[in-house]
Amino acid sequence: MEHELVGLAGPGDRWRPVAAGPFALLAVALALMPIRPVWLWAALIGVVAAVPWALGAAPEARRRRPRPFWRLSAAGLERIGPDGLSIVSYERSRIDALAITTGDGVLTVFHRFGRTAVGGMTAMGLEPLAVFVTARRIGIPLHVLDGESADLLDPALDEALRIPGLDDDVPGGSALPRDHAAEKRLLDQEAALLAAAHEPSLQVSPEPLVEPPAEGRPTRGKNKAGGRRRANEQRLDTPEPLPSRRRIVLLGVLTALLGAVMIIRIAVDGTGEFGARLAAGCWTLAAIAGVLAARRRLLRAAQVRWTINAERLLVRALPGRRREAQDLRAGDVAAVVVGPGLRLDPVSGEPRRADLAALAFGHRMELVARLPAHGLDGFQLAHALDDHGYRVITPGARAPRRPDYGLEGLPEIFAQVPGGRLVVADGGLGWADAAGDVVLKMPEDRIGGIELLTIAGHAWVRLYDTDGDEFFAAPLSALRISRTDLRDSARRAGLPVNDAEYDAYLSAAFHSAVSTLAAPEPGTEPEPATAALPAQSAGQEGAALRPDRAEEPDFTFSVPPPPSPATAPGALLDATRRSRIGTYGMSVLLCEAVALLGAVWLGPELGGFNATASWSVPAGLVIGLVGYWLYDRNRSQLRVSSAGLAVVTRRGKVEWDLARDRIGGVGIDEARERMPRLVVWGPSGRVLRQVTFPPDLDELRRACERYGVPWGPPDADRPAPPPPEL
Length: 726
Description:
Layout: E1 5-6, H1 20-32, H2 38-57, H3 59-62, E2 69-73, E3 76-80, E4 86-91, E5 97-101, E6 106-111, E7 114-120, H4 121-124, H5 128-137, E8 142-145, H6 155-161, H7 180-198, E9 209-210, E10 229-230, E11 234-237, H8 245-269, H9 274-300, E12 303-308, E13 312-318, E14 326-329, E15 335-344, E16 351-361, E17 367-372, H10 378-387, E18 392-393, H11 412-416, E19 421-425, E20 428-432, E21 438-442, E22 449-455, E23 458-464, E24 470-475, H12 476-479, H13 483-492, E25 497-498, H14 500-514, H15 535-541, E26 570-573, H16 577-602, H17 609-632, E27 636-641, E28 644-649, E29 654-659, E30 665-669, E31 677-681, E32 687-691, H18 697-706
Parallel strand pairs: 5-8, 15-18, 22-25
Antiparallel strand pairs: 1-2, 2-3, 3-4, 5-6, 6-7, 9-10, 11-12, 12-13, 13-14, 15-16, 16-17, 19-20, 20-21, 22-23, 23-24, 26-27, 27-28, 28-29, 30-31, 31-32
Helix pairs in contact: 1-2, 1-9, 2-8, 8-9, 16-17
């Protein structure tokens, strides 16, 4: 069909062990049984543990039927089963409209008899933009509604459940207001796709080929197959997994071998006692769990590689089969939409949300391909595609991030006095009206400190009381006073003012001014300074009146280089006490668990479980406490200063440092695939460093704002201006 959208679905012939959990429990149960002879006991454990892998490797088991998928076409919305027949069908003639709810992302079908929630867009493997474009091409209205699908009430119950005065702003009497912003964004993207589809395709001249380098020369331009590659070709790869795939395979194999060796050793020593069979069961479970965990980690440790040139796009996931590589000709692609999307989960094969994906649309507005891009830098991917002549469409500019401060602390009189402004009068702060009369005054004895800083590119002021607690924070633009006037007036009045950014600016300006007066390097002759004298003075005095160069005083002096991020004065942030105590407890619990397992496995050889546990448990407690104390006494600390960021240990070793110009933001990375972590971003949005220990976030935010380090992820669409008045 001309307009057809097929949902994302995993392949049906993916290799996996069959019923690994039940066979693992059966192997553990066999290990606990007193089976004679012992060689049969060990053989049964090994055979049962290997059965799932043998079943998964069988050709008949690997040739599974394809997974069900959803399809939107002129025939309607259908779910196609593995045999190619329709499981669920919503005919086109019976569909009045489609709706996507923003609260839960559910696709709802409106028909003449009511409304039906089909399912979540992610579980169906459909993207909102692709569904929006395809539905409009085949004549189905699609709307975006703000709320959840459960809030779409039956029309017969709307009037009965309506509260007078509460739903007056609902357009058209609907149960939910429509999310105009989301629908407008989809309309804008559709308009951009229409413009790209109707533009004449650019005839790009073929790029010159680079011959493979000779033997002994660097093989930078040579691909793995030894062929030639394009001169203007660009390759984007996701970072290599840590640990590497080889290490993951090695750990899985070693775990399996260790379990097999220990079971054989227990069989040789005898399985008459229950403790020996229990140890064998534990080793069996540990070996199977280690192999399954290694396989799971190996599936997730995949790389995505993009090869971009003016003629084609080649995208493949490494490692992967050659047939899984997606090769698109540039003439078949009208535009590439780069933004959040979907990807297949490497373990379960089900569609999952992805922070970055690419949708390639053709000149008939059809979806040509879904290109995986998770793990890549969206900034680099979009610009690489644009540089090679591809039309790139993004979901739109993100909403600007606003600071976590409001104007709740402003007194009501601030808004009641028109034209009012903040002034420094009579040794304190006051609020003056348009005529200059002070209508509200804050005496000096209430002000413990005035802090000037920059938040989101705007000048702010914080006021502290005598106890050091913050009681007021507002932007200076709302107070109608400039940063320079407030700083100079407060210092003349003797108020405690702290403007760290201005002081850092003056220090940098001073160093740049005096750097030209630094002493020359050894071995270089300084150029003589000549002065322009009037002609009469030069003729009267002559050359004999000029003193010798050796007798001239030396006014040069050396200026020390600016401090590095590790040595610059700033705030030193440590891990919180709660996290340190929790890590102490986890270390002790881990050592105690190892001690108990060792007493269970090695107890029969060391005099029994009770005798072994009597000394292994106290030893585990001491090892846990002493081991973590040795690590904690040289723990890492984060230094925040105007020169940048640095992580230093308590003994002074610098683990890493970043200069201020390389930092785009500091904050919490709310990633979907991992736990939230404290990271440092670059100006382009790439994660530069990860802070492995959790400092106090409030102290970190204050330190970043005090020393001019941006807090929060960088905003590439709306770059923050330089600090005001500096």
